[in-house]
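Final report, section 2: Outcomes. Of the targets proposed, Homoserine O-acetyltransferase is the one most frequently requested by collaborating groups, and we therefore present its record in full.
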Amino acid sequence: MPIKIPNQLPASEILQQENIFVMNEARAYAQDIRPLHIVILNLMPIKETTETQLLRLLGNSPLQVEITFLHPSSHQSKNTSTKHLSAFYKTFEEIKGDNFDGMIITGAPIEKLPFKEVNYWDELTEMMDWSKTHVTSTLHICWGAQAAMFHHYGIDKTPLERKQFGVFKHRIRVQNNPLLRGFDDIFYVPHSRHTTTSTAELERHDQLHILADSEKAGVYLISNGDGSQVFVTGHGEYDADTLKEEYLRDVEKGLNTKLPDDYFPSDDLDNVPPLLWRAHSHLLFSNWLNYYVYQETPYELG
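The predicted structure is given below as tokens.
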């Protein structure tokens, strides 16, 4: 089934070339189907790239999904044009009276900054509180997951001695959880972050459950009891070359960033990195949409 996105969104052409079933607004209105309404709060600087990555995963589902993109009005984007934001994005003020089946809050490259020093922190926390009453299930990614765990549960992030950077093996900790249905015992996920979340602190919260983790990268997938809040510390949405691009940007800035772990074959920058995480990323998003959104959301929103 298709993913419904705004007409003329740049990601549309890329997704259609990959045989992702994309439906424009005009065609979707002709179908007598109640789509799932998903709002994506995109906090990443290069929003067009993140749009394509997330829509690719949301489009691999038998469900029709309608997307609303959101950006914080209290932050001035430096890497995405005002024209693009005006054409494809809404602000919280425009949608806060609405209800949604699901929400995604992305990461943001501001991990070293204390949460309360983020210039849109007040607006973000208002949206996170709003999500508890206006959204069936919210999926938080990387910094978005850390911010939500800090705001909702008081669990702060912990600085790392060096950047957690690379592709890491992960294991399932809780068997038969719907989010991990169909997963292999060992699966791979990219990580790119300067901070982590303490396993011990998470285990002290009865409301939170660590579902999957990595011996090297730490906790990966966390959920509250009813699946209305899901936290993902890695970047399964990344393309095969995303870590390479991040590494080259760090080098260009003069940062002492090591090569991503277990990413380049033979640790040779000239070798093409294999894409090892796409299948499980599709599974995670499909499971979330099916079990914690579609099967839990009311037919009549609100």
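Residues 278-294 form the longest helix (17 residues).
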